[in-house]
User: What shape does this take?
Amino acid sequence: MPGWVSEGTRIRDPLNGRTGIVQFIGEFEDPKTRVVMQNAVFVRPEGGGVEWVVEDPSSLERD
Assistant: This one.
């Protein structure tokens, strides 16, 4: 994950073409696969909407 990413940072997720604000970075267990991600990045669209977990945090871009 890029060092500039932190909670409150506006990012662009190039894998799905969405932009948003980082809400949380931490451990996450996918309820479907039971796979645990140590540094999952949760992002919510600016102004509200449905939050998502970034698939590949190393691909994030500044927005």
The chain has one domain: 10-56. Residues 10-56 form one domain.
